[in-house]
Amino acid sequence: MSTTDDPLAWAREYTPVLQSLGDEHEDDEPLAGYTIGLATHMEAVSGCLVEALNRAGAEVLFTASEPQSTHGDVVEYLDDQPGITAYVWEGMTDEEFDAAQHELLEREPDFLLDDGCELISKCVADHPEVAETVLGGGEQTTAGITRAEAMDEEGVLEFPVYGVNDTPMKHYFDNVHGTGESALVNVSITTNTVITGETVVVAGYGYCGRGIARKARGMGAQTVVTEVEPRKALEAHMDGHRVMSMDEAAEIGDIFITSTGTRDVIRREHFEKMGDGAQLANAGHFDVEIDLDGLAEYAESVTEPREGITRYTTPDGRHVNLLADGRLVNLTGPASEGHPAEIIDTTHAMMFVTAYDLLTRDHGLGPGLYAIPDRLDRDVAERKLDTLDIDIDAVTDAQEQYADDWRHEDSAF
To answer: Where do the annotations place NAD(+) binding (predicted)?
Structure first.
């Protein structure tokens, strides 16, 4: 089969951890008899996760976590495979996107793997009879964890959910390197303008914002960070970025990238201060971080000078350029492919082991949001090192004894 017929062929070469999990469990099929509902950005690497779960015996129902990041060839290929059903298509509207997720939930899946807490929140809010039968779930994004935490605090979660996003193998790699690199690459591709020498304003200094700011500076940009959390602001300062309010940053920024997980970070009072040609992009999960309604109300006219760019002309003649409609710039731009495959490989591997662990082990966990066990994170890290042919040292007996002996009676001092 050629790569033209098989849109996952290239991605499989760059997802060795997922492939190793599929290879390991293909014969014994530990997930046989279970139906897994999955919501994520449906591109080729996500297709490799669907494929790995199916190889392990699961029936997989998949949908999108964002309506404009879907690759139609990937969806059509997967939907043709036995035991896999698509509830998504390329070009779907927001209304169709919402309806498709509900349709998937009506199939009563046993397990939910989520991005943005789309399926989990809808299941609890609108399909309570299904929520009562769901065995568990996993959430892989910062925005989704925020929603899951709110649900947990309110006591409405009906099943155990592993917080995949908060594991080292997710936030140190996917959030920092995946979001950081792919966001900047897609800003550059979409605009065909230079980043070197520009002032890049990054809103939010969580793991994603940290990666964007670090890589922007590595490309030669002047970097500014805005924050609401004092410790993160100090961290950004100590990392060498200028830290200021968005009011101040609006006056000097050339490129603005939001990555906060909240709404209305860039508002009308900021648009009014921006220079001519300012570029606005969002790297947060939902298209609410830039006040799009406020921008439209402020502008005198709106045009599309280039695919993927919406130009708002202000009353005083300035141009403010919005990329990818304010949606995820690294996934919904005209040439967007999402994170590099090698990075998403480990994130999706964490999603796989989440389903495997909760469905095949009796943990006795009640409803709620749980930290994913460290052993699972370590296992994925070890698999990744194996694929890179990297050896590390083993802890010696003496070192174990030293760590356990708090008196240090056998130490040399």
So the answer is: 206-211, 227, 283-285, 330, 339
